[in-house]
Every structure is written in structure tokens, then in C-alpha cells.
Design goal:
Length: 412
């Protein structure tokens, strides 16, 4: 790969690799955004004529416009306005990905880099579980195995956007035993994280991959099915040897034996209490919500007495469920945008299957894991998760269309 293609790849990979290290990740994202702004102004490579640019723009507007319309009734205008304005950097960074990383060579280089980042994160998780410390000498926190993410127990979720395209890359590029080891290691790391939402996301993503395979005409052989079952069994047995993981899931199952609302509320870390209050917020602010990232400031006014989330005049940071979060923050307008966005991804999945583009389908499996409503989630508008999501979305679009640079023939 030429030097002209090399530096954008390194910059994009830094925007992923530095995610566990706090605000420093904003530096490569800022550079990507500035280059993306330059490219769209200068129309580098006729980017504004490309279908990929139009799709990214439509997808971005699905979430950015509801955030804009939430501002007039935002309970914390400064926070909501800053978040709304800050989202633009992810859109411009996405343009950078389309304009600078939209060739087969750069797409493969990015996926290769992502695969080794995923492997590094996963091995660090396992190392911490086995030795009691990660590569940087930090112990587990709050009964969780966060690995390289230090005090923030979100390593399982942060692997979701990159895990499945990485797995397909290993299966394409290396011998089956090595690819199988990679898959087992990453799956073990996600279980070790103790994040039940991330584990459920794996289920939805794998289901999406199975559906894509069925559409492409791939039939699962008995041998491969047994291998898949073996991967799951080995990963689960290995993970449950770690006391933090075993204790966390034992508590969940023990609580559920009691049945009833209280049992389920306790088993879900009081999510039912949280969602009940969120529903009241939505009912009182149905059209445009309380403003993006305004949930915690509105929460105390709707919470019952003694609510564990209320502390110091603020409540829970977010709703821990993407549909409820969008409804609470941006109202019905946000829900409509979310549904349109899902439609765009369905269309992209059709394009990817028609082109038999396996790497794009790997990204799309992660999209399913990230956006599937039947789960609990990280906050979609938080800076760290928004960055991971928008990188995933832009990389997905670039991968779908990398076979054609999309300076398209008239009428397409």
C-alpha cells in the first residue's frame, strides 16, 4: 500500500485502539473530522456524488435532526446543545472513512488492523482474569473483568463493533485452527467482561450472520455445527472458572428463582425501576423528549421516593435501552429516526448479500448487535459509545461499496 493510503489507515486504527485511554482518542477523531470537512468542501473524489456519502448523510440525519428538535424543550440546554453539536465530528470522521478508506486495499488493511486490536483487547481481558491484573497492572473492578478499559467495565460492549468483521477476516486469511482460536478467545473475553447486554448482543449478531449465510446459500454442515457448539461450550466453561464471572451470574439466577417483579428488577440491576421512571418521562415529553443527555437531569422529577438512582439532584445517566433512551431524549421524532435508520441498514444488508461481500456482512452483524432493541444498551449519545457506533456505521457503508468507488453512472 502506498504512503498516500497508509496514513489514513493508521489514523483510523488509532481512533479505535485509543478508545480505552480516555480523552486522548479525541485527537485522531478530530484530525479525521478536519480532513473529512476538507474533503467534503473540496469535493475530493467527487464524494458528494457518491451513493455512500448520501447514505451516510441520511443515516446521520436520522439521529442528528431529532437531537436538534429536542433542544427547545431540553431540561439542560447547555448539555444537550454541546452533545448535538459534538456529534458532527463523528459525521465528518465518517466522511473521512468514505473518502480516504474506500478502496479494497485500505478496507482490508483496516479490517486486518481491527482484528489484531480485538485480539489484543480480548487477550488482555483473559490475562486479567487469570492473573488478577491486566497488561498495565490494574486489577478487576466491581466484580467485573474490564481488561484494558481499566475502571470502566465496558470491554464486552466495546468488542461488539469490531468482533465479527475481525472473526470473518481471520477465517478468510488464516488456517481454520487459528481462526477458531481467535473466535474462542474473543467470545471468552466478552463473557468475562460480565456485561450481560454484550453477551446478548453476541447472540443477535451471530443470528444475523446465520441469516446472511442462509441468504447466500451456505448450509451448515453437521461438523461445523458441532464446532460452533464446541466453541460456545469451551468459552462458557472457561469463563465460569473465573470467580467474578461465576458470582455475577449465580446472583442473577438465584434472584430469579424467587420470581415476580422484585426478583426481575434485582436480577437486571434495577433496570425495571429505571425503565418505569423512563416511561413516565416519555409520557410527559412525547414529541421531542427532554433533550439528548438530559435524562439524568429530568429523572429525579419522575422517580419514586427512595429511588437508588437519585443522588445529589440528578438521576441515572441514561436509560440503558436504546429505544427508551431515544424516546426519553428525543421523543417520537427520535423513534421515527431510529426506524428509518434500521430500514437503511436492511437495505445495506441486501446490497452486501447481493455483492457477496463478507466483510461488509461482518460489520452488519455488529450493527445488529448494537441496535437490536431486545437488549439493554450503552448510551447511544455518549461520546465513547457514539464514536464506536459511528465508526462502525461509516466502515459498514465503505465496506458495502468498496467494489465500486461510487462515482456512479447516471440514473443510479
Amino acid at each position: 500500500m502506498s504512503l498516500r493510503l497508509y496514513w489514513p489507515v493508521v489514523l483510523a486504527l488509532l481512533a479505535i485502539f485509543l478508545q480505552p485511554f480516555g480523552r486522548v482518542v479525541e485527537l485522531p477523531v478530530l484530525v479525521m473530522a478536519l480532513v473529512g470537512l476538507h474533503d467534503v468542501i473540496r469535493n475530493t473524489g467527487s464524494i458528494r456524488m457518491q451513493r455512500s456519502f448520501k447514505i451516510l448523510s441520511a443515516l446521520f440525519l436520522c439521529f442528528w435532526l431529532p437531537a436538534l428538535f429536542s433542544l427547545p424543550d431540553a431540561v439542560h440546554f447547555e448539555k444537550s446543545f454541546a452533545t448535538w453539536l459534538g456529534i458532527l465530528r463523528f459525521y465528518l470522521a465518517g466522511i473521512f472513512i468514505l473518502s480516504r478508506l474506500g478502496t479494497p486495499e485500505s478496507i482490508r488493511a483496516i479490517v486486518g488492523g481491527i482484528a489484531f486490536i480485538a485480539l489484543f483487547w480480548a487477550v488482555d481481558n483473559i490475562f486479567q482474569a487469570v492473573t488478577g491484573f491486566d497488561f498495565f497492572g490494574r486489577p478487576p473492578v466491581k466484580g467485573r473483568i474490564p481488561g484494558i478499559f481499566g475502571d470502566s467495565p465496558r470491554s464486552g460492549w466495546m468488542l461488539i463493533p469490531i468482533a465479527f468483521v475481525s472473526a470473518l477476516y481471520f477465517w478468510q486469511q488464516f488456517r481454520r485452527p487459528l481462526a477458531l482460536v481467535f473466535t474462542v478467545v474473543v467470545f471468552i473475553a466478552i463473557i468475562l467482561s460480565g456485561d450481560r447486554g454484550a453477551i446478548i448482543a453476541v447472540f443477535w449478531a451471530v443470528s444475523a450472520l446465520a441469516l446472511f449465510g442462509f441468504i447466500l446459500g451456505h448450509r451448515v454442515r453437521l461438523k461445523n455445527l458441532l464446532i460452533g457448539i464446541g466453541v460456545v461450550a469451551v468459552a462458557c466453561v472457561s469463563a465460569f472458572q473465573v470467580p467474578q464471572v461465576a458470582e455475577r451470574f449465580e446472583k442473577t439466577t438465584a434472584v430469579l428463582e424467587g420470581g415476580g417483579y422484585e426478583a426481575w428488577d434485582k436480577a437486571t440491576s434495577r433496570r425495571l425501576t429505571l425503565w418505569s421512571t423512563a416511561v413516565k418521562i416519555v409520557a410527559d415529553n412525547p414529541t421531542n423528549g427532554v433533550g439528548v443527555r438530559g435524562f439524568r437531569y429530568a429523572y429525579p422529577d419522575y422517580a419514586p421516593d427512595g429511588d437508588r438512582y437519585v443522588d445529589g439532584g440528578v438521576g441515572a445517566y441514561h436509560a440503558h435501552q436504546i429505544v427508551i433512551e431515544l424516546l426519553a431524549d428525543t421523543g417520537i421524532l427520535g423513534l421515527v429516526g431510529y426506524i428509518i435508520a434500521l430500514g437503511i441498514f436492511v437495505w445495506l444488508a441486501r446490497e452486501a448479500t447481493e455483492r457477496k461481500n463478507l466483510l461488509a456482512l461482518g460489520y452488519l452483524a455488529s450493527v445488529v448487535g448494537v441496535l437490536m432493541p431486545l437488549n439493554s444498551h450503552l448510551s447511544f449519545y455518549s461520546s465513547y459509545w457514539a464514536q464506536a457506533c459511528w465508526f462502525l456505521f461509516a466502515a459498514t457503508i465503505a465496506a458495502v461499496f468498496y467494489e465500486k468507488r461510487d462515482v456512479e453512472r447516471a440514473g443510479v
